[in-house]
Design goal:
disordered N terminus; 8 helices; 9 strands; about 270 residues; Dihydrofolate Reductase, subunit A; 9-stranded mixed beta sheet; alpha/beta; binds NADP nicotinamide-adenine-dinucleotide phosphate; about 25% helix; about 20% strand
């Protein structure tokens, strides 16, 4: 029996670059910090010049993805404002079927101010809604489909049940990406070919785990809500193991103890 050398690590276990001196600084808003208005927020959550896939999640301090099974208990007015801003600037909103079912997603609508912003920036009034599902266990009468301002897309794979495919095909464009399972990279490429370069995923955890595994996440917006949720709620990502990926911190915003973190992919 021989002892094989350990595989080389790109990063140390904490994700820090080897050989870089530790430097700790305190981040605190200056006493005269002015609150950010809607325009200032848009500058901090801009459309990017190139194709980007962003993810937005809210978690408790102890890492819970839900309270009593829903994300609503973790969110607050400032989180909703940023959530709405991210929706406003995206071309397509991607969400897993589990979140659509649990959170009873309704039609993707924006208020008049956000629609006006989009028109002024040469964008369609509403982003495209994209649902990812293997089983196509989706209700065509759910408002996300029945009341949609523009026809949504459902991404699935070639082996999805044909009867469900034709049923959901009445209310959405069905995109086949992959044979026995959904190929998320192919789905993202398809959306980009349709002109949707700014993609925003609102989860949930299984979809996020798969996006991470496929190395498709370019930016991460994490809201840390000042709550200890306890209980047995899952974390924000679940999926196959893979190498950790380094992210760089772009900004930290705060509102009443809630933190809003923006991380971008490290090159
Ligand atoms: N805190 C937050 O910010 C936040 C955000 C979103 C969701 N949530 C919570 O998360 C919970 C839902 O968790 P979840 O993991 O079930 O959510 P999810 O990832 O949205 O849904 C899982 C389902 O989505 C489809 N799916 C996901 N990844 C896929 C992939 N790679 N390929 C094909 N289909 C894929 C499958 O649908 P089919 O079963 O149809 O095949 C799968 O069963 C809810 O309680 C919700 O409230 C929290």
């Amino acid at each position: 029996m021989v002892r094989l050398p350990a595989p080389a690590r790109r990063t140390d276990p904490a994700g820090h670059r080897a050989g870089v001196a530790v430097r700790i600084v305190e981040l605190r808003p200056p006493a005269d910090a002015r609150p950010l208005d809607g325009e200032a927020l848009t500058v901090r959550y801009p459309r990017n010049p190139g194709p980007t896939l962003r993810v937005n999640f809210v978690t408790s301090v102890d890492g819970a993805v839900t309270i009593d099974g829903y994300s609503a208990g973790l969110s607050g007015p400032a989180d909703k404002l940023i959530f709405g801003t991210l929706r406003m600037v995206c071309d397509a909103l991607i969400v897993g079927a589990g979140t659509v079912r649990t959170e009873k997603y309704d039609a993707l609508r924006l208020d008049a101010g956000r629609r006006a912003w989009r028109r002024a920036h040469g964008l369609p009034e509403f982003p495209l809604m994209v649902v990812v599902s293997r089983s196509l266990d989706l209700d065509p009468e759910q408002e996300i489909f029945s009341d949609a301002p523009i026809r949504p897309i459902v991404v699935t794979h070639a082996s999805a049940p044909a009867d469900r495919r034709s049923m959901i095909g009445k209310v959405a464009d069905v995109v086949i990406a992959g044979d026995g399972d959904v190929d998320l990279a192919a789905a993202v490429a398809d959306l980009r070919r349709r002109g949707a370069t700014q993609l925003l995923s609102e989860g949930g955890p299984q979809l996020l785990g798969a996006l991470i595994a496929a190395d498709l996440v370019d930016e991460f917006f994490l809201t840390v809500s000042p709550l200890l949720a306890g209980g047995d709620a899952g974390r924000i990502a679940t999926g196959p193991d893979g190498p950790p990926r380094e992210m760089s911190l772009r900004h930290v915003l705060s509102s009443d103890g809630t933190l809003f973190l923006r991380y971008v992919r490290s090159i």
